[in-house]
Description:
The longest helix is centred in the middle third of the chain and has 14 residues, at 28-41. This protein has one domain (2-96). It is mainly α. It has 5 helices and no strands.
Amino acid sequence: xxxxxxxxxxxxxxxxxxxxxxxxxxxxxxxxxxxxxxxxxxxxxxxxxxxxxxxxxxxxxxxxxxxxxxxxxxxxxxxxxxxxxxxxxxxxxxxxxxx
Length: 99
């Protein structure tokens, strides 16, 4: 994201909204499995409580990064799993979120 921001500043692109997402879809089940693995390692109780979908819930979301690629050559440089795991492995995350 930092690299994309620098490219935007250097090109002076204004009044354009760019999606800088990872362009990969992640299921809630997959997200839960990452958190659950982390919690098991740290011996923290982690429970899943899946509720049925209700009106307005988003079933799938996908980051369309085509415009960012065209304007600034953006290409996601990190995978979601690796990035989330690095955040979870940061001891400050654990300390700040135990309340």
